[in-house]
Design brief:
This protein has 109 residues and is α+β, with helices and mostly antiparallel strands. It is built from 3 helices and 3 strands; from the N terminus they run H-E-H-H-E-E. Strands 1-3-2 form a 3-stranded antiparallel beta sheet, sandwiched between helices. The radius of gyration is 16 Å and the shape is globular.
């Protein structure tokens, strides 16, 4: 979900972007989220996992609109993996893409 109910200081995408960029001026901003999994017997590379996530997001019209928005000139992406458990024989992952049309020049790239 785009909203984090357990951490009020970083509840919204804009709050998270502000924390990591150090600026209130994000201009136009957007966020894509994806939940996915990899079966334990799959031998996918990190690149293949990233391609799967990017393809799923791209094939969703609202997510694709964010990915192709010409005003967005900055992006940040992350994937978090959750270890398999006895009842889940897969590695689950959550991926996020954040976009902004402006970030302070003081941010190191």
């Amino acid at each position: 979900d785009h909203y984090n109910p357990s951490a009020p200081k970083i509840r919204t995408p804009q709050q998270r972007m502000k924390l990591y960029t150090g600026t209130d001026n994000l201009g136009l901003s957007g966020e894509n989220c994806d939940e996915n999994f990899v079966e334990l017997y799959d031998s996918l590379t990190y690149i293949q996992v990233a391609e799967r996530v990017a393809n799923e997001l791209y094939n969703s019209p609202p997510h694709r609109a964010n990915m192709l928005e010409k005003a967005f000139i900055y992006s940040g992406c992350a994937i978090i993996f959750e270890a398999p458990s006895e009842d889940r024989q897969a590695v689950y992952l959550k991926a996020t893409q954040d976009f902004s049309s402006y970030v302070s020049r003081e941010v190191s790239r």
